[in-house]
Amino acid sequence: MAKTIVPIGPYHPLQEEPEFFSLMVEGERVVDIDVQIGYNHRGIEKISEMKNFDQSTFAVERICGICSTSHPFAYTRAVEDIIQAEVPLRAQYIRTIIAEGERVHSHLLWLGLAGHFLGYNTVFMWAWKLREEILDVMEILSGNRNNYAMFKPGGVRRDIKAEDIPVVLKKLDSIVPTLTMIKKAVMDDPVLQARTKNVGVLTKEKAIDYCALGPTARSSGIAIDVRKDSPYEAYDKVEWDMIVLKNGDVFDKVVLRILETFESIRILRQCLKNLPGGKIDMQITDIPPGEGIGTHEAPRGESFHYVLSDGTNRPARHKIRAPTFMNMPTYKATVVGETISDAAIILAAIDPCYCCTERMAVRDTKGKMLYNGEGLVKLSQEKTEKIREKLGRC
Amino acid sequence: MSDILYLIIYGFVVTALVGFLASWFERKITARLQYRVGPPLLQPVYDIVKLLGKETLVPFGVSKATFLSAPLLGLASVALVSTLLWVNTLNPGKTFIGDLVVVLYLLTIPSMSMMIGGFASRNPLASLGASREMKLILSYELPFLLAVFVPVIKGGFSIKLGELLSFQAQNGVFGGGASGVLAFVVAILCVQAKIGFVPFDVAEAETEISGGLLIEYSGSSLAIFKVMKNMLLCTLPLFLIVIFFGGLRFDGINALYSLLKYIGILFLIIVIKNTNPRVRIDHAVRFFWGPVMVLAILAVVLAFKGL
Predict the structure, then answer these.
(1) Which residues of B touch A120 (CB under 8 A)?
(2) Which candidate, A102, A214, A106, A98, places its Cα nearest to that of A152?
(3) What confidence score (pLDDT) does residue A393 get?
(4) B281/A28 CB distance under 8 A
């Protein structure tokens, strides 16, 4: 049978962001895929190098609109890693609260979108209505619905008021029954099960081969979560379970995210109830030369930041790796052999976030590629070496 | 002369107006189910008027005649089938032998016209949508015929719509007995697929194939398809009412019953639409040839036994 190319993107109702997937299909079956990125590159790493350490927090907050706290979280941890600083306990709890609140709204947003991709717009609207509640919570806590601007190297910018805590706890209590109802509606729906069970299976072996992260890996039976593996902030001071499922199909990814939402609410409640007193900022004045690594378990997986300081008030090098960068290649393992109808939901199941992942692509005006990924990595390594030589180390 | 008037006034104008109203009703109920406000009453009309004012683009290298006549074919067939149904509703005496068969034929043409348009537009996604529509027709058409066969059996093997109506007026509606209920369930599922609503909107599947069949249509040709779809929202429930629930009558209290019948069926379609995700095309085929087919055959057997 003749192969046809069915495009997903660069502009497609499925995706909020420009990204180009060519599906090579025979009839309705996908036999191969090709991915092209680079439509939305904003040069955040370079921007960050031109700002001072405090300003960079805001720059990285704008990498992603959904996991907007994950990047500042990982970044501030990287900066604190340079000076080996221990953040005040109260700030640690506040950071955890903001990060988990974000996970709840991110997972609910994804759940809604997954419903939309399956043509189930009722779930879409219900999940997003529920998400409004948690956005209200975030607004009470930080003053913003998204892009909370709570983080700074050495602590947090705003304190949580004692009188807000009962209001927030009450709001969280009101979320749980609706969430339970949605969980039942999603997990017991026979048509939904037919659409998602054994669809787009990512086996444990493949997940390891592709270095999958976060919910994508956990639904394939890999117990990997930065919050448990190397606990930071308040994650080892509260009780919660890492959810790990076995099958790795779309259904497990849905269930995993719903169950994680409950765990996040559990963490939120404990943090809010046990919020310790004290300072919220350790007042870092300068960053000595050195390099630091910061990680945070974003809603989509491990977010990784590397910051190199040369003793000035700006990062000399700032390297960011968002979780989707590791999860997106698994699409090839999951979609080949499936039908076009399922291609959309399989892609959506990794909860892709392209603006986080975006890498530069260099093309001439005719569309010919001048540098491929390897060429660009080589360029980047050469530049890092040059900076290292200039700083006179290793 | 009066036949032409029937075609223009009832077949087209009344059907389109009821269709717009039904389309608004559908969107409003959907919105309310999803905690949204929903559109104003005239929104379906605004949509069509806006589309009529837009440029009609024809893709490069496409047979213009086929591409542009496909929507007209669909619209014409819906207008014609609506005329037949209205004529029989208003005046059962004007029926002719085999008009039920004509109605069944004409009801497949809207899907056919969309398929023709989809294949003509030379877009891989449209072709994919068209091939899905084709598979869908192959799967739902037989159960639909069997479901329609039940009233025919119960009505003394008459294939005249008018006679079926007068039979129901004397002996009670066909939808009342066990076979009638089963046949109605089968028929409403097939109608869902005929209108192209979730869970059977595979041919258009916005998030999978970006609108599928209709992807290359724009301006007035798209407007005609939209009008056709809105009219189907009037025609198909009307057809179900005629063959299962004794048609519409407008004298006294019966007018209220007629309204309730129509809104009830429309509401059922909307609820099915909003409580299901989209099925995959192979699931749809298996669903119609499997459980729905069994139900349809059961209904026919029961009808033969006189239940």
Answers:
(1) 198, 276-278
(2) A98
(3) 61
(4) yes
- 0.90 surpassed by pTM: no
Burial of B157 (0-12, 13-18, 19+ CB in 10 A): exposed
- In angstroms, the CA A124 to CA B285 distance is 26
Question: B207-219: per-residue pLDDT in tens?
Answer: 777 777 888 888 8
Amino acid making up residue B65: A
User: Would the pLDDT of B247 be above 80?
Assistant: no
- Domain positions in chain A are 41-360
The most distant pair of C-alpha atoms in chain B lies apart, rounded to whole Å, by 58
- The yes-or-no verdict on residue B281 having pLDDT over 80 is yes
The verdict on a CB contact (< 8 Å) between A124 and B34 is yes
Greatest C-alpha distance within chain A: 69
Side by side, the strands of the sheet bearing A301-309 are A290-298, A301-309, A315-321
Shortest CB distance from B34 goes to which of A28, A125, A192? Answer: A125
On the question of pLDDT at A1 being above 60, the answer is: no
> What is the rounded average pLDDT of the residues A195-221?
89
- What residues 342-381 of chain A have any CB closer than 8 A to a CB of chain B? 342-344
What are the chain A neighbours of B128 within 8 Å (beta carbons)? 6, 28, 340
Parallel/antiparallel/unpaired status of strands A290-298 and A155-156: unpaired
Query: Of A198, A197, A202, A229, which is closest to residue A217 (Cα–Cα)?
Result: A202
Question: What top-level class would CATH report for the domain A41-360?
Answer: mainly alpha
Residue of A nearest to B125 (CA): A6
- The residue with tokens 């986080």 is A356
For residue A394, the SS3 value is: coil
Contacts of A82 (CB under 8 A, 6+ apart): A287, A288, A290, A291, A292, A307, A309
Domain residue extents for chain B:
2-304
Residue given tokens 């006189």 in the structure block? B306
Closest-CA residue of A relative to B124 is: A6
Q: CA dihedral in degrees (B50, B53, B58, B63; nearest 10)?
A: 100
